[in-house]
Amino acid sequence: MDTEADFSVEQADEETILVRHCQEAHRYAFFIVAQDGRRCLGDGITIGNNATVNDGASFSGDARAFAEAAARERKLID
Predict the structure, then answer these.
(1) What residues are paired with 75 via a beta bridge?
(2) What is the 3 state secondary structure string of 35-58?
């Protein structure tokens, strides 16, 4: 799976990063939290698109990996 092509960043700030699955429009919000003196990706919320065959949870691991890389690139996490 080409994660770069599968997801896009819809919003990113110091508190949250929101990514979207490009083909199925599932959205994933991940909170940016402080842990042991560092900023990292915390818990996330899946906002599924019920009009698709695949459940939003089936892409959550890839969405998290994409969000983490995007947040690191934007210097939102350490």
Answers:
(1) none
(2) ECCEEEEEEEEEECCCCCCCCHHH
Take residue 62 and report the two structure tokens written for it. 């890839």
pTM value? Answer: 0.90
Residues 6+ apart with CB under 8 A from 56: 21, 24, 26, 27, 28, 46, 47, 48, 49
Residue 36, helix vs strand vs coil: coil
Name the helix (H) or strand (E) containing 62: helix 60-73
Six-digit token pair at 47? 């906002």
The encoded tokens of residue 25 equal 């429009």
Q: What is the pLDDT of residues 6-24, one digit of tens each?
A: 999 999 999 999 999 999 9
Q: What are phi and psi of 69, to 5 degrees?
A: -65, -40
